[in-house]
Amino acid sequence: MGYFKLFLEQLKYSWLKKFSLQMTTLLVMVGSFLVVTVTVLVLNNINHIFKEVSESFQVSVYLTTEGEKEEHKAKIKTLIEESKIFSDVAYVSKDMALQDFKTKMAEQLPSFVLEENDVNPLPSSFALKINEQFNNKAGFNKVGSFVDGLLSVIGVEDISYGKSWVNKYSAILASYNIGSLAFILFLLMSVFLVVGNSIKSSIAQRRKEIEVLELVGATRMYIRMPFILEGAFMGLISSAISIGLTYALYQSIVSISAANNAESLFANLNLQFLPLHISLLICLASSVLGAMSAMLCIGKMNTGWAALSD
């Protein structure tokens, strides 16, 4: 309780005596954490969109005429089910494929007419839905390996699953993740230095008081803890403000999208704000960052540092 009381007195003193410096420090930290939270928000939504697209992703295994025979068809279906990669395995006959083709063509091109006595050129196939646990880059690699092996099975003519699209999208997503992480680390390092500068200023303001505390034998923790709490507080309050500003930005984008409907770029995207656990993690990480920065600035305290510095 004594540490906390001293921290509040020190915080009040710092803001009264060096208001412009403290406000500038806070604004810089809020700006830095705002960029961090927006970056995390964008990254979270990109991953969410990729997951939604992946859930609708379908693999089509096209069969030859021989593959339509019951023994070959049963073998192929057994191999697919035993892989545990797919949550749904549906057989699509030639007639079903033709009917689906007619329905889609009627929607896209009403003038299109297919004569009843025309030969059905469409093959029968298996429509496969990928298990949710495989909706990631590593999972798609397993799907690719399984597909390559399935192509050699008698009765399988071809397999379609958009391999090139998945690989390109996964590569872009991985690059963005790495780039975002590097950018966030750079910003956090900047915040680390800004907090350190603020704590050094606070120490300079209270040099005489620290000297007196050292001379009367105050414990090391009693002298240092208020500064550590100040660093943690600056990190916490700036990250909380940045999350609030990010939420306001998110709500404005959602509102604009709802008002403009299909005309908005975000109208068809199911945007989501940061989950509670990620928001709390950002606040916690910023507090720890502020405390660590303060700890580096007070390393010489309680060693006669204040008196020797005069």
- In the predicted model, the low-confidence regions spanning at least 5 consecutive residues are 304-310
What's the overall average pLDDT, rounded?
Answer: 77
Number of strand segments: 4
How many structural domains in the coordinates?
A: 2
Name the structural class: alpha+beta
Write the H/E string, N to C: HHEHEHEHEHHHHH
Question: Looking across the biggest beta sheet, what order are the strands in?
Answer: 2-3-1-4
- In percent terms, what proportion of residues is strand? 5-15%
Number of helices: 10
Distance between the termini: 31 Å
Shape: elongated
- Rg estimate, integer Å: 31 Å
Notes on the structure:
The protein is α+β, with helices and mostly antiparallel strands. It has two domains: 2-52 and 178-308, no CATH class; 58-160, Alpha-Beta Plaits (2-Layer Sandwich). Helices cover 69% and strands 8% of the residues. It has ten helices and four strands; from the N terminus they run ααβαβαβαβααααα. Helix 2 (19-55) packs antiparallel against helix 6 (163-205), helix 2 (19-55) crosses helix 8 (220-260) and helix 6 (163-205) packs across helix 9 (276-297). The protein starts with a helix and ends with a helix.
